[in-house]
Design goal:
- Helices cover 49% and strands 6% of the residues.
- Strands 1-2 form a two-stranded antiparallel ribbon. A two-stranded antiparallel sheet has the order 3-4.
- The protein folds into 3 domains: 3-187, no CATH class; 199-296, no CATH class; 297-372, no CATH class.
- Helix 2 (17-29) packs antiparallel against helix 3, helix 3 (34-55) runs parallel beside helix 6 (106-127) and helix 3 (34-55) packs parallel to helix 7 (150-173).
- By secondary structure, the chain is mostly helical.
- The chain has helices spanning 3-6, 17-29, 34-55, 66-75, 81-99, 106-127, 150-173, 176-182, 233-241, 267-293, 311-314, 327-335, 359-371, and strands at residues 202-208, 211-216, 299-302, 305-308.
């Protein structure tokens, strides 16, 4: 069962999907980036405080500080001493994490995680539906699978907090009767918004006319190997000579006019490249899924296909006896010291750089590798 299916605060989804999803990302970040967890836990509790202020019809402005909002709850005797202390612990630690350059420890994130449970328990028991039960506190566990790295977690949390902000604005505009309906578990359908494998979070969007491509985090600085783009190979080589389009992060937000960086190219080249970039991204996503599903294995990739490299296959000699019909490629590989299959590059299309090596040659090589 995946981490996304078993995250601790999944029970919050019927009450607030947005709060549940932010809590999920906080859980993901505890052992990856304590600083990130502490900083954004403060945002999480402020959202709860604002919901309570709206429900209790206590006036506040958007510029009112979290400390002042908590004082309003305290003055109205809406929170116990323990809950108030939990709020202030997360608030103060979150402030430090946002400004202090020192290293923050897992233990600090765990203390905030425990304080968070006390706050959520209070909020659900007082303001949630009667049949929504809060599980007993449980320490989080480090993920046994590949984890999100710090920068990706930051993006995910910011995306979730935008959803949370929107939901708070809607919450403030609802009449009490609407809120009561929204708080009934039976009336709520939940979905798994923004649940992706690590690396799949959208980091930016690239446009071409009325179309767009979402770039996943793991491809943020991917090398755009010209040989992967059949129609755009020479276009990319020329752009690379102008220090453009060598890696994904060098691409502009809109590809319209990309051809203007080099002479003798036109709008058709922009369009072809955008279409091939779409294919490239889908191929890379499939490759990443394979690598995550089969850790510790070696692969040869060719376009949208792959071969598992076994120990036996890796030791097969690169000779004209073993591989027929491609003598020029075999000779050139042997000349630079590549004599066994295991020495071939993982990305087989790289071999197209050799003299007189085209798509037909690579397809023959790939077919014969698969046959072995």
């Amino acid at each position: 069962m995946s981490q996304q299916q078993t995250y601790f605060y999944k029970f919050l989804e019927p009450l607030s999907k947005e709060l549940a999803y932010v809590a999920r990302e906080l859980e993901n970040s505890i052992f990856t980036s304590p600083r990130t967890m502490l900083t954004h836990a403060r945002t999480f509790i402020e959202a709860i405080v604002e919901k309570v202020l709206v429900i209790e019809k206590l006036p506040f402005e958007t510029f009112t500080s979290l400390a002042e909002k908590l004082d309003m709850l305290d003055n109205q005797e809406l929170i116990s001493d323990d809950v108030r202390n939990a709020f202030h612990q997360i608030r103060m630690t979150g402030n430090k994490a946002a400004h202090d350059v020192r290293q923050f420890r897992y233990s600090e994130a765990l203390l905030s995680w425990e304080a968070l449970h006390m706050i959520v328990k209070w909020y659900v028991e007082v303001y949630g539906p009667i049949d929504l039960k809060v599980p007993a506190y449980r320490d989080p566990e480090p993920s046994q699978n590949e984890a999100y790295d710090m920068a990706e977690l930051q993006v995910r949390l910011e995306n979730m907090e935008k959803l949370l902000t929107t939901s708070l604005e809607n919450f403030q505009s609802e009449v009490p009767e609407q809120r009561e309906v929204a708080a009934t578990i039976e009336a709520v359908e939940t979905d798994d918004v923004a649940v992706e494998m690590p690396g799949m979070t959208t980091i930016r969007t690239i446009y071409y006319e009325n179309d767009k491509l979402e770039i996943p985090y793991f491809l943020r600085d991917a090398f755009l190997l010209p040989q992967r783009f059949e129609k755009s190979e020479r276009f990319l080589i020329r752009l690379g000579g102008e220090q453009q389009a060598r890696i994904m992060s060098e691409l502009p937000e809109n590809l319209v006019g990309l051809h203007k960086y080099v002479k003798r190219y036109n709008e058709t080249n922009d369009q072809n490249f955008f279409s091939e970039l779409k294919v490239f991204i889908e191929e890379e996503k499939k490759r990443r899924e394979i690598l995550l599903e089969r850790p510790g294995e070696l692969f040869f990739f060719y376009k949208d296909d792959y071969i598992v490299v076994t120990e036996r296959l890796s030791q097969v000699p690169l000779s004209t006896e073993e591989f027929t019909g491609i003598p020029s490629l075999i000779r050139q590989l042997n000349e630079i010291g590549i004599e066994y299959v295991g020495q071939l590059p993982q990305e087989l299309v790289v071999l197209a750089k050799y003299k007189n090596v085209g798509i037909g040659t690579l397809e023959k090589l790939f077919g014969q590798l698969r046959g072995k």
